[in-house]
Amino acid sequence: MTTIDKTKPVLVTGATGYVAGWLVKRLLEDGLTVHAAVRDPEKEHKVHHLNGIAENSPGTIKYFKSDLLDVGSYAEAMQGCELVFHTASPFTSDFDDAQKELIEPAVKGTDNVLSQANKTPGVKRVVLTSSCAAIYTDAKDVKDAPNNVLTEDIWNTTASLDYQPYSYSKTLAEKKAWEINKDQDEWDLVTINPSLVMGPPLNPKSTTSESFSLLKQLGDGTFKMGAPKIGIGLVDVRDVAEAHFKAGLTPSAKGRYITSAHNTNFVELGEALEPKYGEAYPVPTKALPKWLLLIIGPYVNKSLSRKFIRNNVDIEWKADNSKIKKDLGIQFKPMRKTMEDSFQVLIDNDII
């Protein structure tokens, strides 16, 4: 049981990120002092949304310049903190060198932050933003799981540097975290493992999250002939932030937490948008046949390799979220609300 003193500051790495922004908001509204570790605290457009939230909250925000690859760069930010949220990690499918752009920042960054926790007196808990990608690579992996359901006991064994390197980076980073945690007894580790995160960003103009390029494609005509029926899990960004908050401050929280609200697929995401936006935007409500995708997929989108199509299209995705509901009392938002709130932000900001 780990009790956190709320009068002490709390560290959030990657504080300008998509999930981190909502977490910072939640902490500030609860009156906490947030040490926000970011790469460029001077870049006003990166932090203005957090400043706005801080001005209207009982909590306080302080910025610290930190970099995932610089050893010791989190030392100052971590001083005096009992609770550390490590959310910073790259999420992109647009890279030239997976080792340099995905694996190294994810693994070395985790090593840096957690090794710093070892050197900082008083740290009691680290909450790591991991991913369901550390549990599985393809929907096909669900078929190979016990009872065809993903649980916290399962680790990803199918991703590699050459195939789905993002999933590989999340797996290696989380494994590194548990390894560092095991070698000491000052602080405990809790991991949040979200599926695909959607929901409104707090800073839409500079949101680079991969989920937004998918959302955009759902409305810009990319899928007007139909969408690939790719099995996925979906969760609202606001629920993911709440999961972090509760994982940090619930004394009995422990281990990994699958943070996924809905077992779904790309076609159902389009169907969730259709009632409100179907008349004005070409949102998909039907599935492209798998045989057709196998022919055209690799030409349409480089991430739609034939292997990926075979392993994900028309395959049901299923995860068990009972642990986080029971331990942390998380209640998930309905899919339609998540999708509509996300899509509306793209419209309001002329992104679509």
TrEMBL record:
<dbReference type="GO" id="GO:0016616">
    <property type="term" value="F:oxidoreductase activity, acting on the CH-OH group of donors, NAD or NADP as acceptor"/>
</dbReference>
<comment type="similarity">
    <text>Belongs to the NAD(P)-dependent epimerase/dehydratase family. Dihydroflavonol-4-reductase subfamily.</text>
</comment>
<dbReference type="InterPro" id="IPR001509">
    <property type="entry name" value="Epimerase_deHydtase"/>
</dbReference>
<feature type="domain" description="NAD-dependent epimerase/dehydratase">
    <location>
        <begin position="10"/>
        <end position="251"/>
    </location>
</feature>
<dbReference type="InterPro" id="IPR050425">
    <property type="entry name" value="NAD(P)_dehydrat-like"/>
</dbReference>
<protein>
    <submittedName>
        <fullName>Nucleoside-diphosphate-sugar epimerase</fullName>
    </submittedName>
</protein>
<dbReference type="InterPro" id="IPR036291">
    <property type="entry name" value="NAD(P)-bd_dom_sf"/>
</dbReference>
<dbReference type="Pfam" id="PF01370">
    <property type="entry name" value="Epimerase"/>
</dbReference>
<keyword id="KW-0560">Oxidoreductase</keyword>
